[in-house]
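Work Package 3 (structural annotation) set out to generate three-dimensional models for the target panel prioritized at the project kickoff. During this period the team completed the workflow that converts sequence records into discrete structure tokens, so that structures can be stored uniformly alongside our sequence database. As a representative example, we reproduce one entry of 190 residues exactly as it appears in the project archive.
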Amino acid sequence: MKKSAWIVVAILGVIVIGAHYADKATRLPRTSSSVSAAKMDAPGGGKPAPELTLKDLDGKDISLAQYRGKIVLVNFWATWCEPCKVEIPELIELQQKYGAKGFTVLGVAMDDEGRSVVAPFVGKERFDVKGGPSQMNYPIVIGNDAAADKFGGLIGYPTSVLISRDGKQIKSITGLITYEDISKAIESQL
């Protein structure tokens, strides 16, 4: 190998190692389900959800405040994000299972192209839920960096934040949600 190739390999190695340690330094610690449930049951637990108003796919303003009294799973995602696409069937299923009980998923699409990419994706894509094709069945709004910053910024997609009926952030998940874990968290708030 030429000397310049070794330099490129070394630089890439440093970048990968740096990214690994940056991820570890900024990642929120995972807690066990029992500890999480105990914290969620504590009165007044969690910091207040931020003020947030974004446009839905029809151009109407949707605010997080209008969901006060409901349990809300704010899900930051993007159409190009493969892990997000893997997670969508579970989000559809959660909406089906808990929607009538005062729960909603609020999908915050973070695509740079905005509505022009998100609306066709939501209208066209079908996901396998319990053996059949299903469309996204929860509200979708167009997000931006300012919206993400209100939740403390995002490390990656998907990122989900569970908000209690009284507007407190009670659980934050970076990466794929686990259906069982998020179901337990939702049920602890019903």
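The CA atoms of residues 75 and 160 lie 4 Å apart.
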